[in-house]
Amino acid sequence: MCLGIPMQIVSIDGFLARCTAKGVEREASLFMLQHALPAVGDHVVVHLGYAMERVSAQDAAAAWEVYDQMLSVEGAA
Fold first, then answer.
1. CATH classification of the domain holding 46
2. Which residues of the chain have pLDDT under 50?
3. What does the DSSP assignment read for 19-58?
4. Residue 42: phi, psi to the nearest 5?
């Protein structure tokens, strides 16, 4: 199973964005979103190093609630 991770963009250099989530920073390509480039502060879903779609801050937070629940159940097993 593959999951896209919601992250917030902290900087952009061309088609390369520096993104953060839960204290972790990663670079993500914006090539897939070149038709409507996101801006610094936007949230995007990152999968395999590519920002796949822009999402609202509320949707990003809701996804992290689910991921946190999944991780807590896995840790309890």
1. 2.30.30.140
2. none
3. EEETTEEEEEE-GGGGGG---TT-EEEEETTEEEEEE-HH
4. -70, 155
- Domain hosting residue 64, numbered range: 5-76
Q: List the structure tokens of 3.
A: 């999951």
Q: Residue-wise over 25-54: b if at least 16 C-beta within 10 A, else e?
A: eeebbbeebeeeebeeebbbbbeeeebeeb
User: Domain total for the chain?
Assistant: 1
Distance CA 55, CA 52 (A): 10
pLDDT at 2: 73
pLDDT of residue 3: 80
